[in-house]
Amino acid sequence: MPVDDKELHGSSKASELAKLMRCPSYNPTDEHQESWTSDSSDSVISSGSDSEDQLFKVILLGEHGVGKSSLARIFGGVEDLQDVDCFIFPGNTYDRSIVVDGEEASLLVFDIWEQDDNHWLHNQCMKMGDAYVIVYSVTDKASFEKASELRIQLRRARQSEDIPIILVGNKSDLVRSREVSVEEGRACAVVFDCKFIETSAALHHNVKDLFEGIVRQIRLRKDSKEDNARRMASSKRRESIGKKAKRFLGKIVAKNNKKMAFKQKSKSCHDLSVL
Predict the structure, then answer these.
(1) Where does residue 45 rank: exposed (0-12), middle (13-18), buried (19+ CB within 10 A)?
(2) Do 213 and 195 meet the contact criterion of CB atoms below 8 Å apart?
(3) If phi over 0 gives left and psi between -120 and 50 gives alpha, with beta otherwise, what is residue 59?
(4) pLDDT at residue 235 in the model
(5) Which residue, 241, 226, 66, is CA-closest to 150?
(6) 265 vs 250: CA distance, rounded Å
(7) Whole-prediction pTM value?
(8) What b/e sequence results for 92-108 when a residue is b if at least 16 CB atoms lie within 10 Å of its CB, and e otherwise?
(9) Bridge partner residues of 103 (DSSP)
(10) Who contacts 112 (Cβ-Cβ below 8 Å, separation ≥6)?
């Protein structure tokens, strides 16, 4: 359901965000909804799951015209509907449950970044997401540079938090108009420590992989955090001299292997199933 600009202007800042968070998101009927199930599961998709612990808020960021709303509508299953005029501008949320690797998860996708250039709302977007998708157009170098700026802003807003961030180069089907190469996108993702994928909203290419990848990235970080907590709890005993020596030698080796590590990251940054 679109967010009404007039309602946003007429309410207090606190009620603005509250209105967005409880806004009834668009759920397409089953007859229009594409089945999104990961290859490792035979389960079917259901809409509007009420599972609180598996509800993930995903924020779309990026310049105007890069295709954020198109990606959101494809995810929401409204791209093929006849009457979509009221859904073509930023200000929508889309709630959909998908099955990834045999387990159901609900995504609440916010396409509200450009709404009325509301700076307070922009600040809240930077703080409330469980995952972020930074979109640029491969046919627009300026939007690519803006994506880098948004990644810096996001780092400042969330600092030490390990949140999933996926850099998306959209409009990959427009080969003749391309201004940003795949290599540039991948290198940017490595530098800013995020994942990378190219999509074509026009052809629905990699859109399913993108949103399934978001779920996997959230789960991987959750599992990693729990594993680290268990590891810390079991390793409170004093380190032996041997362990300290190994750790010291490890640091020396790490310095000599920085170039190799960069190459390894560039190879894995497009794999949304690993950290």
Answers:
(1) middle
(2) yes
(3) beta
(4) 58
(5) 66
(6) 19
(7) 0.72
(8) bbbbbbbbbeeebbbbb
(9) 100
(10) 3, 20, 90, 91, 92, 93, 121, 125
CB 141 within 8 Å of CB 107:
no
Strand-strand pairing, 195-198 and 103-111? unpaired
* Burial of 67 from C-beta contacts in 10 A (0-12 / 13-18 / 19+): buried
54 residue type, one letter = Q
Estimate to the nearest angstrom the gap between the alpha carbon of 159 and the chain centroid: 17
CB 272 within 8 A of CB 197: yes
What are the Cα distances from residue 208, in Å, to 3, 40, 51, 67, 156? Answer: 25, 14, 21, 15, 29
Tens of pLDDT, residue by residue over 213-225, are: 999 999 999 887 6
d(CA 182, CA 184): 5
Q: Estimate the crossing angle of helix 182-191 against helix 141-158, to 10 degrees.
A: 20
List all residues 6 or more positions away from 65 whose beta carbon is below 8 Å from its beta carbon: 137, 140, 143
Do 115 and 3 meet the contact criterion of CB atoms below 8 Å apart?
yes
Nearest to 207 by CA among 168, 165, 257: 168
Among 61-75, 88-102, 130-144, 230-244, the minimum mean pLDDT is found in: 230-244
